[in-house]
Amino acid sequence: MDVQRRNALAFFGEATLFGVGMVLIGFTTVLPQFVSELTGSTVLVGLVIALAEGAWRAPQLAVAWWLLPARRKKHWLTRAGLVSRPAYLVLGIALWVGAGSHPGLTLGMFLVLHGVMFLFLSVDHMVWWDVFAKAIPAGRRGRVLGASTVARGVLAVGAGGLIAWLLGEWGPGFPRAYAALFSLTGILLLLSLGSWSFVVEPDEEPVLRPSPRAYLQQLIAVLRENRTFRSLVVVRLVSGFEGLALGFYALLGTQVLGFSPAYVGVFAAVQTVGGIVAGLGLGLLSERAGIHRVIQVATAASASAPAVALLFLVTGLDAHHLFAFLYPWVFAAIGLSLSANFIGFANGAVELAPPGERGVYIGLFSTLSGLTVLPPLLGGWILARTSYATLLSLTLGLVFVGHVLSWRLGPIGGRSASQVGPGPTAPLEQPAASR
Fold it and tell me: What are phi and psi of 273, to 5 degrees?
């Protein structure tokens, strides 16, 4: 087997197994339900998403700076994965042996392990995209990402059925249902690390690590000189206000609209179908029309989720209405948006980076995007003091602005790639969450 095919299969396996594992503890489905059953706090539901977003995004510029001189970076992900990827398995085992009967202890353990998982994901994410860009030719990246999205989507439909049974009236109930989901997630994440071990990383000339002051000046130069990259960051930040409501759609369905808790599995399955649809077309769209077109699709899908949920509230639709089948579109839109973000925003930052500077571009984009940690926290605070209608209206308005801004993006990749330069070439060096 030639090296390119081996690398494509290894990345496909790693991303697929990782993605299915994360479906089992979905941030928009399972985790909000878990935290709600454990504490009943909407603010803590927002904290779960915010903790993950902040923990993996904030350290990335420092990680990029540290890894600059490394000729090969693969082993850094392996080390980080050995520390972080068993985290949910540990939590699952703790729930099996009785931790669930002590809510305070369980919440503390969950927040620590959840935080550790995503803190080390900052290294994981940085190295994954850097090695991916070296090991997979530019013309085939969208295809590999799209194929992985489709595969994990198909597998996650089955995962959605499992979630529906575990959380439904015939399932084992709290906390055993969540013990099973956390344990399976931990196992799949470890298996994905096994697939990563088959990646063959090409050599690359190391880059001298600049002083912190020089590094800061180079980062500023990237933002000042690369208009398309700067616009990419702005669109991501504004569209990131989708996070205001992201953790509350499942709770709205089960606590307000009358859907059974078993529907959490249905919502998870439908969300993955949205991801399948995205993976089928958006990988090819990124290669042919450009990554900027994928981002426009992503932001449109993001806006449609609060619009449909708001429609249910305004018109009085609920789980018993003839048109109740429309509500799962919220989760299909989220799945499509998340997949498009993966193939769009993260891939766009890689595409805009000159050789030798990928780590800086990925780290800078991820760190600046870390401001999206605020909307989930703010969303929980807003919901605790107002209503779902207020929260959804605000989310819809802000995400729509993000969609409008996406049409001002310059061409990124695709057939237009030759029309734009790669940006500044200062000597510098992205689940999901994100892949």
Answer: -65, -40
- State which residues form the domain around 105: 3-198+209-419
* In the predicted structure, residue 275 carries a pLDDT above the cut 50: yes
Does any domain span residue 172?
A: yes
Per-residue DSSP letters for 99-157? GGG-HHHHHHHHHHHHHHHHHHHHHHHHHHHHHHHHHS-HHHHHHHHHHHHHHHHHHHH
Structural domain includes residue 430:
no
Say if 431 falls within a structural domain: no
Give pTM, 2 decimals.
0.71
C-alpha–C-alpha distance, residues 258 and 120, integer Å:
38
Q: Determine the Cα–Cα distance for residues 142 and 246; give it in Å rounded to an integer.
A: 26
Number of structural domains the chain divides into = 1
Judged by DSSP in three states, 4 sits in helix
Is the pLDDT at 425 greater than 60? The verdict is no
Give the confidence band of 138 by pLDDT, cuts at 50, 70, 90.
Answer: confident
How far is residue 90's CA from residue 18's CA, in Å, rounded to a whole number? 17
Q: Say which CATH number the domain at 111 has.
A: 1.20.1250.20
17 pLDDT band (50/70/90 cuts)?
very high
Token match 């995209």: residue?
129
Residue 170 lies in a domain: yes
Judge contact between 287 and 413, C-beta under 8 A: yes
